[in-house]
Amino acid sequence: MSGVLTIKKNYAWDGASGPVLDTQRIMRGSLVHDALYQLMREEHLPQKARENADWLLREICIEDGMSKFNADLVYLAVTCLVKIILNRTCCARRNVMI
User: What would be one Pfam family of this protein (predicted)?
Assistant: First the structure.
């Protein structure tokens, strides 16, 4: 994934999701990640961009001072969460509860 992402002032975003404190080490990564996921939901980016968006979150967190260990945990959390959500979506279409 390459290009320039411009996020304008007052973009509707609520910080990092889940049991994560909104610290300076995660805020910029969370903002970029949320904006990229919105672009995927609105079909401006292909769904295959998800892997790159998740990895970019990790990289930005490290750039902003997060330890690699914690950034890896953030990366694993978002990638696993997406798989669970996608699985539930697939299961819901088949009337299967998980």
Answer: DUF1353
